[in-house]
Structure formats: C-alpha cells, structure tokens
Amino acid sequence: MQGEYRERFPNTFESASRARREIVAYATAYGFGADELSDMEHAIGEALANAAEHGRRDGTGFEVHAYPDGDGLVIEVQDEGPGFPQWIASPDRRPSTDSPRGFGIFLMRNLMDEIEYSEHGTRVRLKKRLPPAATGGGDVAKPA
C-alpha cells in the first residue's frame, strides 16, 4: 500500500525515541491537528517504551508499521518479548492511583480511538481517526 511506514529498530530506549519522532512526522503528513498529534505522540511513546522495556532481550528489536486505514491512521508496534496475560490489557482495568507504574495501557486507551493487543501482548495496534474536516468526509488524505 502506498504511503506505508515500516521500520525495524534495535531494542533500545534511544531507538524508541527515534521511532516516536518518525511516526509523529509521518502522521503530520496525513493532516492531523496539533491536539491529535500530541495524543498520538504520547500514546505511541508509551507503546514504544513498553516494547523497549518489556520486550528487551539480547539481540532483539521491535518493528513499527503505520498505514492509513479508512478514516484514520493505524500504528502497530511489535516486540520480541514474552508478552503478558490478556487481562492486563482489559479495557475495564484501571491503574491504581497509588502505583508509580501501570498507566501506559490506560493512557493509550484514552488518547487513541482504538487499541488492540494480540500475539500474547507483543503486538499493539493503535488507531487515531482523522477529524471529518481533514478527510473531506471520506478516506484518509494521502501524504504528497
């Protein structure tokens, strides 16, 4: 599909930071506004930080794939870690307010329009819809 982004990165926090910047730059070309881009940057940053932290094993990496999908943009992050039990990503699960950790999935759910985990938690699929004015009421605009 024309306009896709796909890149494999070594599993480091520096690579996660670079991937976040590249995906935000990619999303900018689709006509997202500042508020949507900020939401995406934070959600994508969480997904990438999780991949770098929890998917980290010697010699591993993570892959980022972004592509238009109907009325929005999908960003997938796949790591090579052990994954996690599905209940951790449950939409009904809320982090404890006295815990210093555990807000990443909750944050992504609140910043993106769709979030889905698969492959035992090693792949996250995030989707952000474009506002109707940016799509002209139809499909996602393609970058020039």
Write up what this structure looks like.
- This protein is of the alpha+beta class.
- The chain has a single domain (5-135), classed as Heat Shock Protein 90 (2-Layer Sandwich).
- It contains 4 helices and 5 strands, in the order E-H-H-E-E-H-E-E-H.
- The protein has a 5-stranded antiparallel β-sheet, with helices on one face.
- Helix 1 runs antiparallel to helix 2 and helix 2 (34-54) runs antiparallel to helix 3 (104-111).
- The two termini are 14 Å apart.
- The mean pLDDT is 80.
Concise overview:
The protein is an alpha+beta fold and 144 residues long. It has a single domain (5-135), classed as Heat Shock Protein 90 (2-Layer Sandwich). Helices cover 34% and strands 24% of the residues.
What is the strand and helix layout of this fold?
Layout: E1 5-10, H1 13-28, H2 34-54, E2 61-69, E3 72-79, H3 104-111, E4 114-118, E5 123-129, H4 132-135
Antiparallel strand pairs: 1-2, 2-3, 3-5, 4-5
Helix pairs in contact: 1-2, 2-3
